[in-house]
Amino acid sequence: MSGVQSNVNPVWKIPIARPEAGSLATPIKFVIWLASKQPGVLFASVTLGIITFTAQAVMPFAIGRAIDSGLENGVSRGVLTWAGVMLAAGLIQVAASAIGHRFDVLSWLRAALTTSRLIGETVNSTGDAIREELPTGEVVSSVTSDAHRLGDLYFQAARFMGSVATYVVVGIIMLNASLKLGLIVALGLPAVALILTFLIKPLQKRQEYQREVTGRLTSLGSDTVTGLRILRGIGGESVFTERYKEQSRKVRDAGVDVAKVQSTMDGLQVFLPGLFVALVLWIGAMEAANGTITPGQLVTFYGYASFLTWPMQNLIQMVQIATRAKVGVKRILKVLGVENNTPDTGSITSIPADAVLVDTVSSTVLRPGVMTALVAADPDASAAIATRMTRFDDSAESDTPVTFGGVTLKDFDKDTLRHSLVLSEATPHIFAGTLRNGLATRPGTDDDAILRALEISDAHDVLESLPEGLDSDLPEKGRSLSGGQRQRVSLARALLTSADYLVLIEPTSAVDAHTEARIGRELGGYRKGKATLIVTASPLVLEHMDTIQVLGHNGKILGTGTHSGLMSDDGELGATYRQIVGRDLTKEPETASVGADTASHTKGVDLA
Amino acid sequence: MTTEAQAKESNAPVVDPNLLPIADGKSVRTYSLGLVKDNRSALIKVVVMHAFAAIAGLAGPVIIGRLVDAVTAQSATTTYVNLSVAILVAAIACQSLITRFARRLSMVFGENVFAQLRENFLDTAVGLPLSVVERSGTGDLVSRTTHDINRVQHTVRFGVPQILVSAATVIITLIASFLTSPLVALAVVAGLPLLYFVGRWYLPRAPKAYIEESAAYAQIYADVTESVEGSRTIESLSLTAARRELVENGIDRAMAAERRTLNLRTVLIPGMDLSFAIAPILVLLWGAFMVSQGHASVGAVTTVLLYTTMLVGPIWDLVFWLDESQVAATSMARIIGVGQVETDRVARDVEPEHETISGSGIEYAYREGHNVLHGIDIELTPGERLAVVGPSGAGKSTLGRMLAGIHPPTGGSVTVGNVPLIDLPLEDLRGHVALVTQEHHVFVGTLAQNLLLASPDATEADLRRALGAVGALEWADKLPEGVHTEVGSGGHTLTPAQAQQIALARLVLLDPHTLILDEATSLLDPRAARDLEKSLNAVLSGRTVVAIAHRLHTAHDADRVAVVTAGQISEIGPHDELVANGGDYADLWHSWQQK
């Protein structure tokens, strides 16, 4: 047992441990692995559980002996002795149960939180894969519910073992006093427990259904209030409250169905052990009437028969807990089995200062010191190129290799690569937390740098709107910000990485023209000497680029140039470019339907 | 207001106007009692049945006490034993049956009360004033709908019935002890003072600790959820280490909170156990003394002794549930608080004279003293298309909300046909003017249901026309089951751009005479956005449209353009006129157009 001496006791720290693949193979192996991380705690918990229950088992025996030792004569020496025994057993039980509870909880915590930590680690280090392979809800419930159910297994272990121990002790005591009674105890209770376990399955099935409909009700409720602004704006509330009420009734009915089985089980939990007690009492009373046993022993037997219903209930609980834990561990293992799409197998840890990033299929190129734009008629095509140029899925990208200083991306050490090469997408996630923490993702970023980046991305209005400046908390997904503000904050965040190679997809699609023009003007100076690739179709940004690569319909770079050069180019390259970025609205496009073919747009573009 | 009155005011709970209220203890009690009163007859039935079950459960100790007396007096015949055991079996059968029905009744009771509670809550939440919903954001309300409702659920479902059962059992067992032998029973209550003091120490300390504990877990859940949702951003910005630290902090916090509650229980558990351990010893010694004095029989002492041990379970249950219900009460306060939001408008029985919306001297401040709008005058000409442009934070969206009647302005007025918008009943208001923002939400349900909420009586042809008007018909028809495909959380996922089209299609179905579109096409790519606006304009011809936009083609296509800068309209007029005037707008237009 790992000692309990000081405040910084290591048992209160959750270990940073990663199980080997073998321990993740089956639920049992994982359960054993977790147990191996806390043998001392488990041992203490189980030992104290056994002591608690055994001390409790002394009570009926002592009461019986006290009655036999001449209760009718008042407070005799015998009564005092047995009262003393009761007191001693009571004190032992009080102490053991209090300390035992601490170890039970510790055992629960270590199992549940070690698992939670592992899940957190998996979620935080597997990138996209976690979302691709599992629904968000399933991953979250592995932390909110499955890890706790697994913990219950360790918590219950002490009571279960204590119950088994007392059951054996009491059985032996009863067998010694009377063979018949002993046999009844030894066989009767397991039979009762067995009958009751038959009800566990239907009960859990109904509970499972109840959880399901309740979960659906919760998501309906949250769906309704999340969209409340829309409902309040245009009506339809009654449809939604009706829908909620309908589901609410389903939940109620499911609860009533559970109540039917649960109450039957409760009734049987009174009836079956009760019958067992009555049987013991009947045989005991007969023997007492014959004088085979004393009145005190009769009370003892009665006491034991009633007392043993506790271990029995613990046994039934253990079955329930183990069933749930098994289901939970299976789900946990599914989450823990997820692997990153870009495994950290590469070994190259240095990137030459003049390394050029090349997408070999499209011939898109990004050079140090150059503000580069990628322009395409189909925004998805250019976004896809930008994404693969920053390595997000090794196996999917094996046919479309991207080289960096002549080396394929997957051969780089991940940390090295991600440090130098950063992608910021059109709608990146903004995490809950202070604005400062949200922006400064790299160590050593000071407030001056943050303010400068906010200035460049024209996001000072965000700072001004927050009561506590950089220390203000942003809610999850930056919900309190407008779409344009969110975009500018994430641009500032990307700029603050100071990555040597920065790829930005549509960084200004949701900001107004004034702001976009300012951002376009400032970016070049801020990123001076570094490589920046921007996917955009906005002339306000494009006019400040050193070089613009125009993607053709065949997915290959058609040609490159500067904004003014391309605007005045007479060839196919210039025509394509103007078709994409042109904004002269004096001539109307002839068709107005969404997704109209590009030919009709061409007519509307002023080629001058 | 006098200073005295102000001082009184400040005693009232501090209410941040931007947050939803939280009810005080008194309101929680009043509300809970109201729920109990509404279900009084069911409750009485539950209590009475449990009392009977408890009484039947008392037979065992009585019978064994009598048997002990009979055996001691050597008067126990086989018939006497058989009869006693038969009575015991009958009592057990009764107890089991009554328990079964009483449990079922109390669980059904809990289900009904809880269903009533959550349905009332949702009714209230859905009826919240527009301005409150807009201002307080949805996060708080969502957490009340999910987290708080779920936290109360456990207590209402199981706690309320269990408290009743345990209280009934304790009281009846105590009464029975006194009936068996009043003098011996005195010793039963000897353990109570310790129990009382331990309880008094523990119960006030516990809720805070448990609330912190559940907050710590909620933090872990929120962080993990965010990590999953933002997994791509974590990968691209190498946030793994920072996110890991968050999880670690969460786990440390949970551990610290668990230690705190565990320490509280380390006082509670031995305290209670000790009083339970002492009671039977006292009964034994005191009983022995009483027996020697001829005041009680050995059997009576045995019976009381066994009763004492029977109290352990129910008292533990009582303490456990008192504890839980304290924690649930804090969630209850947040649930009931939603009902305490004051309405921001009182509808009058008025009829607008015409369809012109006009604002004069509009001022608005989200925080007192910080005006976002500084006296804006504007009149919308029926049927015109007005574009509102200007830098971020200039107050464009706020102006849009004023014109849609979402918030009552803090100064000036917005009227339709000379009637202030906020004097109109909500149903009428929506018929006049509606707002669509860039915030979009696809509801769980079919695509058709998502549209029907704007106009429940619309036919399928209407739906298709509306989808066509926003350019969504093509992709809608390609969905697995067309407009009857399940969408929203858990269903088919729509892109943000598609969600925006749905929001606009709803507006087409609602068909008010004035529409406010606040960046309503910002998530579509520029070309698609412009096409959509054009086809929308065709459908909405004759309607007044105010379009707040950052893309200047919207302004170019509009009848008039209003430039909002720093809470004021700095320029207003037709596009060509503004460009010719050579002001801010002209500069902007030229830079946007690259001329």
- The separation of the N and C termini of chain A measures 85 Å
Rg measurement of chain A, Å: 36 Å
CATH superfamily of the largest domain in chain A: P-loop containing nucleotide triphosphate hydrolases
Q: Helix/strand/pairing class of chain B, anyone?
A: alpha/beta
CATH class of the largest domain in chain A: Alpha Beta
Under CATH, the topology of the largest domain in chain B can be stated as Rossmann fold
* Total helical segments of chain B: 23
Q: Helix tally of chain A?
A: 21
Low-confidence stretches of chain B are 1-16
Class by helix and strand content of chain A? alpha/beta
Computed Rg of chain B: 35 Å
CATH architecture label name of the largest domain in chain B = 3-Layer(aba) Sandwich
Helix content of chain A: 55-70%
Overall shape of chain B: it is elongated
What would you call the quaternary organization?
Answer: heterodimer
User: What is the largest interface, and how many residues per chain?
Assistant: A-B, 172 and 176 residues
How would you sum up the global shape of chain A? elongated
Q: Regions of chain A with pLDDT < 50 over 5+ consecutive residues?
A: 1-6, 587-608
Average pLDDT of chain A, rounded to a whole number, is: 86
What does this structure look like?
The complex is a heterodimer of chains A (608) and B (595). Chain A has 608 residues and is of the alpha/beta class. Chain A folds into three domains: 1-123 and 136-177 and 321-338, no CATH class; 179-292; 357-604, 3-Layer(aba) Sandwich (Rossmann fold), CATH 3.40.50.300. In chain A, 62% of the residues lie in helices and 7% in strands. Chain A has 21 helices and twelve strands. Chain A has a six-stranded mixed β-sheet with strand order 6-9-10-3-11-12, sandwiched between helices. Chain A has a four-stranded antiparallel β-sheet with strand order 2-1-4-5, with no helix packed on it. In chain A, a hairpin with a 4-residue loop joins strand 1 and strand 2 (364-366). Chain A is elongated. Chain A starts with 26 loop residues before the first helix and ends with a helix. In chain A, 49% of the residues are buried. The two termini of chain B are 60 Å apart. With 595 residues, chain B is an alpha/beta fold. Mean pLDDT of chain B is 86; it is low at 1-16. A six-stranded mixed β-sheet of chain B has the order 6-9-10-3-11-12, with helices on both faces. In chain B, strands 2-1-4-5 form a four-stranded antiparallel β-sheet, covered by helices on one side. In chain B, strands 7-8 form a two-stranded antiparallel sheet. Chain B has 23 helices and twelve strands. Chain B has three domains: 21-181 and 296-340, ABC transporter type 1, transmembrane domain (ABC transporter transmembrane region fold, Up-down Bundle); 190-279; 357-593, Rossmann fold, CATH 3.40.50.300. At the A-B interface, helix 2, helix 3, helix 4, helix 5 and helix 6 of A face helix 4, helix 5, helix 6, helix 7 and helix 9 of B.
